[in-house]
């Protein structure tokens, strides 16, 4: 009998068995204004369900920019630590919304928060997170690292290494990979199929923040950057099909 949260397995063989999916808060944002677009939420949940059907253990980190950006509040005069803590709480709201959407499509899910709030989610404990993954549950890591001055990109890199993820899947809601320039502003921008960590850092390419990239480089953790809005890309990345841009060592 399947463990709790597991879905009937697919005959397709994934390249990765344990992954961390990094979503920006903007992936949940409505076309206009702030908040949560429930249609987008449902679409993301459906794609994650397909991944779960492959037998893949999936963890997620989601940002909070669709609700609140700490940097914007800092610019308005709020203390940096306080502003960042407000941003962490926004990620918890998104995590709870995503948990609800996943469970509505049959994926058992747990939210583990770096800031303790036991009334709504579990505290982050590494061994507990791994146990949930082994039981076939999706795990959403909320509240970043729990510390100010660190982004959710850094949280994604940290959690991925802690749980032994084989890859970080960085889902973009604007572009289909990493470009030499901003393709939204410069139509002639060129997309890379592969990059090394050093190239990303030296060219200041907008993949993840430099702390996150450096952590991945130090531990040889690959990153795949792709377009979330193209249906099926999450599954393609996990199956090892060419999608987006792969960032890894130069070996």
List keywords for this structure.
8 helices, Carbamate kinase, 9-stranded mixed β-sheet, 251 residues
Ordered list of secondary-structure elements with their pairings:
Layout: E1 18-23, H1 38-52, E2 57-62, H2 70-75, H3 80-104, E3 109-113, E4 122-123, H4 126-134, E5 138-142, H5 152-163, E6 167-172, E7 178-179, E8 191-192, E9 194-196, H6 197-202, H7 210-219, E10 223-227, H8 233-239, E11 245-248
Parallel strand pairs: 1-2, 1-6, 2-5, 3-4, 3-5, 6-10, 9-11
Antiparallel strand pairs: 7-8, 10-11
- Supply Rg: 17 Å
CATH topology: Carbamate kinase
Distance between the termini: 42 Å
Strand content: 15-25%
| Apparent shape | globular
What is the number of beta strands? 11
- SS class: alpha/beta
The number of helical runs is 8
**CATH homologous superfamily designation:** Acetylglutamate kinase-like
Model regions low in confidence, pLDDT < 50 over at least 5 residues = 5-9
Strand order of the largest sheet: 4-3-5-2-1-6-10-11-9
Describe this protein's structure.
With 251 residues, this protein is α/β, with parallel strands linked by helices. It has one domain (18-248): Carbamate kinase, CATH 3.40.1160.10. The protein contains eight helices and eleven strands. It has helices at residues 38-52, 70-75, 80-104, 126-134, 152-163, 197-202, 210-219, 233-239, and strands at residues 18-23, 57-62, 109-113, 122-123, 138-142, 167-172, 178-179, 191-192, 194-196, 223-227, 245-248. A nine-stranded mixed beta sheet has the order 4-3-5-2-1-6-10-11-9, with helices on both faces. The radius of gyration is 17 Å and the shape is globular. Residues 5-9 have low confidence and may be disordered.
